[in-house]
Amino acid sequence: MQNDIDKVLYKLSKSKFRSSFHLNDEDREYIILKGYDTIYKHINEFISKRLAPKYIENDGRQTPVNGHPVFIAQHATATCCRSCLYKWHKFPKNVELTDYQKKYITNLIFTWINNEMNNYK
After folding, report:
1. pLDDT tens track for 15-66
2. 52, 44 in Cβ contact below 8 A?
3. 19 HSE (CA, 13 A, CB side)
4. Which sequence spans correspond to the domains of the chain?
């Protein structure tokens, strides 16, 4: 799974739009304050509630652009809505995400956040 995540992160880094997202100082402080375990739990919760269901009433608008570091990461990793999930990750719409897909998305977002935290200058 990690090899697939590294490949997609590289591909996303070549997108002008996806690569424009970065954590700001407030996001970094929040992550440090809450800790990585809590951030991982937040990712799981957001994916389960906002992305995993078969039908999402407000698909394409369910992930804000700011307000939580995970939201920024979702836009950076194209895991913000089912349309982006299909375009970038080939996960079909109108089908509930599998446990594997949810784990993949969670690990992708977490890896992106970890990279952002480690590459801060």
Report:
1. 999 999 999 999 999 999 999 999 999 999 999 999 999 988 877 777 888 8
2. no
3. 9
4. 2-118
Residue 70 phi/psi, 5-degree rounding, is: -65, -35
Residue 81: helix, strand or coil by DSSP? coil
Where does the chain have alpha helices with state H? Answer: 2-13, 25-34, 36-50, 69-76, 82-89, 99-118
- Which tokens in the block code for residue 11? 């591909």
Q: Which residue's structure tokens are 């992160």? A: 9
Structure tokens at 111: 């890896």
Angle at which helix 36-50 crosses helix 69-76, to 10 degrees, equals: 60
pTM, rounded to two decimals? 0.93
Contact assessment for residue 13 and residue 76, using Cβ atoms and an 8 Å cutoff: no
Residue 121 reports pLDDT greater than 70: no
Which residue is associated with the tokens 């652009």? 65
